[in-house]
Design brief:
- Keywords: DNA-binding, Transcription, Transcription regulation.
- It is elongated and about 95 Å long.
- The chain has 3 domains: about 120 residues, Response regulator (Rossmann fold); about 130 residues, 3-Layer(aba) Sandwich (Rossmann fold), CATH 3.40.50.2300; about 80 residues, Winged helix-like DNA-binding domain superfamily/Winged helix DNA-binding domain (Arc Repressor Mutant, subunit A, Orthogonal Bundle).
- Helix 1 packs across helix 8.
- Helix 1 links the parallel strand 1 and strand 2.
- With about 350 residues, the chain is an alpha/beta fold.
- Helix content is about 45%, strand content about 15%.
- Strands 2-1-3-4-5-11 form a 6-stranded parallel β-sheet, with helices on both faces. A 6-stranded mixed β-sheet has the order 7-6-8-9-10-12, with helices on both faces.
- The longest helix is centred in the N-terminal third of the chain and has 17 residues.
Length: about 350
Amino acid sequence: MLYVRTEEEFKSYPWCRRILRGLGDEARKKRVPLREIGDAAQIPPQDRETAVLLIGASEAWIGREALRADALGVHPIALTNRPPAGRDGAMSAVMMDIPDSMRLAVDYLRSLGCERLGLYGVNPAATSDPWRAEVFQRLTKGKGGVFVTQRSLQHTFECFRSQLSACDGVICASDYAALSLVRRLGQVGAGQPGSPYLLGYGNLFLSRLSSPSITSISDDYEHFGRAALAAYHLVVREKTVSSVNILLHSRLHVRETTGGRPYAGARHGPEEAGQRPRNPFYEDGEVSRMAMLETLLGQCDETDFAVLQCLMHGDTYAATAEKCFVSETAAKYRVKKMEKMCGANSRGELVSFLREFF
């Protein structure tokens, strides 16, 4: 039995219904029984070596419910856009890859020639929007404008309107924000050729049917079900797995608000990545030699370990062959293989290398 706990305030949103629909379809295919519960305490004591799916939009709610499940011995699997930070205890998560989807949005607009980007309609109370804003600022090196919805979308537009001419590309944090922006741009006569290219998040039916239709990045919430069941099977049936984090890709749906222009560019990483920083630890010769020895020992069988002991004792090949129950040729072959793995040019060099650590 797989249990499902949903944040009450989140149930009425289309995203939640899509997650539940996809989850139900996948559970029927896999013949996994589902049961919705109002509290983790409703899980019978005899069934607590299982998992509960936590579907919600609030980090605080997910964190609280994960603690309750963990205390009962039930493994929490959060279906969310961002797991709660600083939480102790094992918890799995299925999430949209927010950084990857923001890179897709920025790369697409840049491939269309947009250089002055804005992020519009950020909801500071959501789990994903502040994260989107962080990634956006990083990708634009702090030069992109971020317009936060503190009161209403009407107020957000009033703040944005004075800077409209400064943006040639706008990423809306949701399709709701995109729909609102397109409507208001039309009302003030700005929704004409030369207006900024615009895209949203969510791929709602409204964004497909609006005029103009809105280019959108889809978070395929139906895929949460498949990923959630994969995580469930891993953490419940594979006892060596303590937790699983799964990131889901997003897709771009090109429509009229970007002129129907296809995405012709390749996916790029963040611009600030640059050259990889040095890691002095792995440049340390002592560490490298220990790593080489660990690799050697990891590939040894029982006979190899016996040969190593004979080497350390200074035994001849004949004595080694007798003690290890192999031919002298086989003993020499094994030693040569060890020399090669350790970069040693002779048996003596190999023994010196071993005696550094034993």
